[in-house]
TrEMBL record:
SUPFAM superfamilies per record: Nucleotide cyclase
Species per Swiss-Prot/TrEMBL record: Kitasatospora cheerisanensis KCTC 2395
Disordered as annotated region, ranges: 233-282
Protein name as it appears in the record: GGDEF domain-containing protein
Entry-linked SMART domains: GGDEF
Amino acid sequence: MSTPLLLQALAVLGAAAPAAAGVTALRRRRAGAALGGREAELLAKIAELTAERDELRRTASCDPLTGVWNYRHLQLTLDQEIERARRAEASTVDPRPLSVLMVELVGFDALVAEHGRARANAMLRDLAQRLAVEIRSCDTLGRYGGEEFLVLLPDTAPDGAAQVAERLCWTVRRHRLTDRHPGEAADPEERSGLTAAIGLAVLPRDGGHAAVLLRAADRALAEARAAGGDCWRAVPPGGPAPEAPAGPDASPLPGKVSPGPGEDTLTPHATTGGPRATGDRP
C-alpha cells in the first residue's frame, strides 16, 4: 500500500475511534442504569419480603382474638426467662427471681349469656389490652387458653408480683362494658361484672422448671377460684395455700383486694389515684 493510501486509512480509523468510544460509553451507561434499576427493584422486593416475614412472625405469636401473645410465644418466652434467671443465679451473688401470674376471668360465661358471644369477645379483647398496659415493657402477657392469661414478670420478687396481682384484680373489677349497640341506653359507668382470680408462683421457690412452675401457679389459682375470685393466692413453700377462716368476723383472705377505711369497693387496698405500671419492683 502506498504512503498516501496508508495515511488516508489511518485518518479514517482515527476519526472512527472517538465515535466507537462514544458508543461504547453510551452502552455502558445504559447497562449501568439498567443494572441500577434492577438492583433497586431487588432491594424493594427484599424489603417487602422482610416486612411480610415479620408480619408472619407476629401473627404466628399473637392470639387472634385478644391481640396479646399466644400460648406458643408464652412457652418460648418462659423457657428463655427461666434460662436467663439460672445464668444470673450462677454468675451473680444476688439472684434474679422470675414470677408467674396465672389469671382467670371469673364471670365470663355469665357475660356471654347476657350479652352474646360476639360482644363478650369484644370486651375480652378490650380487657386484655388494658391488662397489657398494667405491666412493664419487659414483662409478658399472653392468653393461656379460654379466659385464662399468663403474666411473666422477670426480676420480680414475690412482694413485687403481689403488687402486680392486686393491680390486675383492680383493673378487671373496674372494667366497664364496651362495644355498646347504637342507641342503646345504658349507664356509662356500668361494670362488666368480671373479676380476676390469680395464682402466683416464683422461680426458684415454687419450681425450677416451666412445667413445675406452671403447676404451682395453677394450684394457687385453684385456691383463688375457690375463694370466690377477685383475689390472688400464692402457694407457700412445701404445701398448698392455707384455707381462710370462715364466718363474718374472719379476717380478709390472704391476697384479697379488700377496701380499707374510707375506701369504696372499687379502689384497691393501699392504692390511691389508680394503678400505675412504671418503675422497678422489689
